[in-house]
């Protein structure tokens, strides 16, 4: 019987995560900690005896580098990898590049909180989480899920908000529930799916 294995992993800590900046579609690299997190992710997956048939990642280097480092640890440096912008982080628009504390000073604590934590209110010039779901979820359904249902073992390295879109569906979370769902940097989440694409088991590899 095929495994129908899907592993989601948020990229390791980036330079802008460290500086508390809104990153979005900007392309900073990983910090030393981020590199270590990515390697640890690969080591954890290897310790479970997992190998993969295909990988997906975003068009941004922090997700691509996390995937590369993890695959090196697993011993699959040449795994077929598909890169697509639809797995990119949420676009923060006018907030991009701003320190989160500076943004609060400019627009007020309450307004910034709404932009960050509401489901369907976008920041100026940017995407809401609902907008991110609207581009990420169809890509998952059309391109990623069929591979899993064929019995391929699939690894996805992407971003906090693009992965939230997938987690929302996999874990059947409400718009309110997904806003509270934190995804730690560099921590793989291992899903095994049933033939009807619902989740049979989930294993968060934190700690």
Give the spatial strand order of the biggest sheet: 3-2-4-1-5-6
Question: How do the helices and strands follow one another from N- to C-terminus?
Answer: EHHEHEHHHEHHEE
- Shape verdict: globular
**How many helices?**
8
* Class from helix and strand fractions: alpha/beta
Q: Major beta sheet, specifics?
A: 6 strands, mixed
* CATH-derived topology of the domain at 5-91 and 138-152 and 172-204: Rossmann fold
CATH architecture of the domain at 5-91 and 138-152 and 172-204: 3-Layer(aba) Sandwich
**Average pLDDT across residues?**
95
State the distance separating the first and last CA atoms.
Answer: 30 Å
Low-confidence stretches: none
CATH superfamily of the domain at 5-91 and 138-152 and 172-204: Phosphoglycerate mutase-like
Count of DSSP E strands?
A: 6
Strand content: 5-15%
């Amino acid at each position: 019987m095929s495994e129908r294995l899907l592993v989601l992993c948020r990229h390791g800590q980036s330079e802008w995560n460290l500086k508390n900046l809104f990153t979005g579609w900007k392309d900073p690299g990983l910090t030393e900690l981020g590199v270590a997190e990515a390697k640890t992710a690969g080591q954890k997956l290897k310790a479970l005896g997992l190998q993969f048939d295909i990988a997906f990642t975003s068009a941004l280097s922090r997700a691509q580098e996390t995937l590369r480092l993890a695959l090196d640890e697993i011993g699959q440096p040449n795994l077929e990898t598909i890169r697509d912008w639809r797995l990119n982080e949420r676009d923060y628009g006018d907030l991009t590049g701003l320190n989160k504390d500076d943004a609060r000073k400019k627009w007020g604590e309450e307004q910034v909180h709404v932009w960050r934590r509401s489901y369907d209110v976008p920041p100026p010039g940017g995407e809401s989480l609902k907008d991110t779901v609207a581009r990420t979820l169809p890509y998952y359904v059309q391109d990623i899920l069929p591979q899993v249902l064929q019995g391929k073992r699939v690894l996805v390295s992407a971003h906090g908000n693009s992965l939230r879109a997938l987690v929302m569906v996999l874990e059947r979370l409400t718009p309110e529930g997904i806003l509270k769902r934190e995804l730690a940097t560099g921590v793989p989440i291992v899903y095994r799916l049933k033939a009807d694409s619902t989740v049979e088991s989930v294993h968060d590899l934190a700690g």
